[in-house]
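Hey,
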Amino acid sequence: MKRFRKVLIVLLAILVPVSIGFGFNFFSWNGSKELNKEAMTVEGELSIDDLANIKNLVPGDKICDSVTMNITSSTVSSLRVKVEIYCADSEKPETDIAPIKNAGDNWLKGSDGYYYYTQGVKNGDIVKLAEDGIYFNGLNDNVDMNKYQGKKIKVVAKAELVQAKHGVFEGKWGLKSDTTNATDKIIYDKLKGISDAQGNKTKSE
């Protein structure tokens, strides 16, 4: 087995999600009564949980702990997250690195590289992706990890939320019911189920 030199200090990027799906409901007429309803919000906070006292990496090491989403939406929403590894100041993610060993319960990875949470999320929910951590792993045994010697490694997480109602995820995220990818089909069906449940809930209220 090859021996590897340590890789320099890890940099972590923390992003706040800005992709927001929204709905607006307002009704009035030219009589003596008026009805107002507040527009919903879809938002949350994203963080990468750092490891204390780690300065250098060798292949197989954990780079950081889980990626955490603190949901603050006023409505049930759908969530997806992408985690990518960057080397030094490169603008392109490293395709040789497989950062997630186990995404966790209720997560499925789509063909677009996003991990989709297959349950609806709502205000006050705290959702973690890869609770076991994000790792500095080669995609397979053929990856020459020596090329990363002495380079800085950066983890970038991007989260997106959209309202669960009305099938917004289809247009926003490009998921289709007729996809031929088996996992994408499961993801679609799960998100559609959440959407339909929210629609039915509205009708019954």
